[in-house]
Design a protein that fits this description.
Number of helices: 18
Protein name: Oligopeptide transport system substrate-binding protein
Structural class: alpha+beta
Distance between the termini: 39 Å
CATH superfamily of the largest domain: Dipeptide-binding Protein, Domain 1
Helix content: 25-40%
Strand content: 15-25%
GO biological process, one term: peptide transport
InterPro entries: Peptide/Ni-bd, SBP_5, SBP_5_dom
Number of strands: 21
Largest sheet: 7 strands, mixed
Number of domains: 2
Shape: globular
Subcellular location: Cell envelope
Pfam family, one: SBP_bac_5
Length: 539
């Protein structure tokens, strides 16, 4: 009955008048409908900087990856294919990659060179850049040592042999290397532009040059970003989309209203809205490479106790979370989602974990044992749970309710913007935090390595030497089978032996897309979309 009322209320919300809202049409209606090959999307916040070295959110990365192109790019089937590289030569030991560049142009008409790649990659690695993405390059010889200031940049295995030949030397073979370099941090920037703009690079995207399918042609005062087709792009004859508009709007109900008013072409939907639209031909659902989980602040003495962490894990009803909060998700038994590759099948199929279950009686027992080990009569007065101010706020509210109901824990919610949440995490101002790490490429190691001691994304400061060693062995493994075995051990150690995190659910994305939008490619990992494939047909 409760769900029926909620669904009726949601349906009524869709009928609310758009009066009083700033709609897409008030921003740029004439240009929207005057161009048939125009796509209208939304982003949840203003993007202030467009720099592939420091971008670490999916929305800015998405725009950068559609205005730039790396040596490799993802095709419509999410496989790496040649981009700026026209040919690749790989050494017999699979540690030296030689890329031969095609005659590609920047949007100002100048040639894309191997020096552009060398300059950009080394800039991302430089300690002074403070790039959150530097670790992605650490499979390259001396990249990590250079990042820490231990060797000169000339020692890094990144070299422009000549204008059209680019060489990369790896520390050991990496089977997903070509997948890895489709990611945003590996895009080139024009070397002389980096030199010219220095610390202000990326702050005015209209003054930048681009080598991808699109260029950023303007940003309005309200934050709307406009992409135009790049006429200098080497493969522009196979790009039919002329314009893309990204409007700033972070309200799910408002976005759905805009979609129903034919003012935007795509919108993500959640919770009760999925029930209302599930039978629509415009409804889409994809498996992503993201897992929603709780990460602990390991500096919190109370949460350092393993039995306390285990109790919290057993006190959570994941099926209730999925049914009430994110009904297209899948309760998670581990960190690695089903989309991650194993040796021959998905990693999750090859290395299954028990289905997640709630056991309140056992949770209460472990909780009391943990309090005794800590010498406490009761739990702290409150624990701070960091969350986002988007739809995941409801997830945090439900977790707070369950932990109070099942363990008597008082959880204080701190729901904030993404940027503020990252700042609070980096400064350790939390006890628990909702995390939804999405893989940059389809290999389990990209998620498991975030729990190693010195990883930049290890905001909870988790540290275990044997775990670090297991990940190191996985990286240095001579065979895929051996590597997957080490990764299986690593995940089970985190989850079973140490309860270092609490998996909640594997994230599946649901969205509505206008039926006249074809080939809207949504990738499960790495960049969200490849807009170069989009085609808009007559309605």
């Amino acid at each position: 009955m409760k769900k029926s009322i909620l669904l009726l209320l949601s349906t009524c919300l869709l009928l609310i008048s758009l009066n009083g809202c700033q709609t897409a049409s008030t921003m740029n209606s004439q240009s929207l409908f005057g161009n048939q090959q125009a796509l209208r999307l939304t982003i949840p916040y203003h993007i202030k900087r467009f720099d592939s070295a420091i971008a670490n959110d999916s929305f800015s990365m998405n725009i950068l990856s559609n205005t730039g192109e790396g040596l490799m790019r993802l095709n419509e089937n999410h496989q790496p294919v040649l981009g700026i590289a026209s040919q690749i030569t790989v050494s017999s030991d699979q540690t030296v990659y030689t890329f031969h560049l095609r005659e590609a142009k920047w949007s100002d008409g100048s040639s894309v060179t191997a020096q552009d790649f060398e300059k950009t990659w080394k800039r991302t690695l430089a300690k002074s850049t403070q790039s959150p993405n530097a670790y992605l390059f650490f499979s390259i010889i001396n990249a990590e040592s250079y990042h820490h200031g231990e060797v000169d940049e000339s020692k890094v295995g990144i070299h422009a042999i000549d204008e059209k030949t680019f060489e990369v030397r790896l520390k050991q073979p990496m089977r997903q290397f070509l997948n890895l370099i489709t990611c945003t941090p590996f895009l080139p920037q024009k070397a002389d532009h980096l030199n010219k703009h220095g610390a202000t690079f990326g702050t005015d995207p209209t003054q930048m040059v681009y080598n991808g399918p699109f260029v950023i042609s303007g940003i309005s005062e309200t934050g709307t970003i406009v992409l135009n087709k790049n006429r200098s792009y080497w493969d522009q004859k196979n790009v039919t989309l002329e314009k893309t508009y990204f409007y700033v709007s972070n309200n799910a109900v408002r976005n759905l209203n805009l979609y129903n008013a034919n003012q935007i072409d795509m919108t993500r939907i959640h919770d009760e809205f999925t029930k209302a639209y599930h039978q629509s031909p415009e409804f889409h659902r994809i498996q992503t490479s993201a897992t929603q989980y709780i990460r602990f602040n390991e500096q919190n003495h109370f949460l350092q106790n393993k039995k306390i962490r285990q109790a919290i894990n057993l006190a959570i009803d994941r099926h209730r979370l999925v049914q009430q909060i994110h009904n297209e998700a899948e309760p998670a038994g581990g960190l690695i989602p089903p989309t991650m590759k194993g040796e021959n099948q998905s990693f999750r199929e090859e290395h299954p974990l028990p289905a997640p279950s709630m056991d309140i009686q056992r949770a209460k027992q472990l909780f009391q044992e943990g309090l005794t080990e800590l010498g406490l009569q009761k739990a702290p007065e409150r624990l701070v749970l960091l969350s986002y101010e988007d739809e995941r706020k409801q997830l945090a509210i439900e977790l707070k309710k369950q932990l109070k109901e099942h363990l008597g824990l008082n959880v204080l919610l701190n729901t904030t913007s993404r940027s503020e949440k990252l700042t609070l995490e980096e400064s350790g101002k939390f006890d628990m935090t909702l995390s939804d790490w999405a893989a940059t490429y389809p290999d389990p190691i990209t998620m498991l390595e975030t729990f190693t001691t010195h990883h930049p994304q290890n905001t909870g400061k988790y540290s275990d030497s044997p775990y670090d060693e297991t990940i190191k062995r996985a990286i240095n493994s001579s065979s895929v089978s051996q590597q997957m075995n080490y990764l299986r051990q690593a995940e089970r150690f985190l989850l079973v032996d140490d309860q270092a995190f609490i998996p909640l659910y594997y994230v599946n994305e649901t969205y509505l897309l206008k039926s006249h939008i074809k080939k809207f490619v949504r990738h499960p990992f790495g960049i969200p979309n490849s807009l170069r494939y989009v085609q808009i047909v007559e309605q």
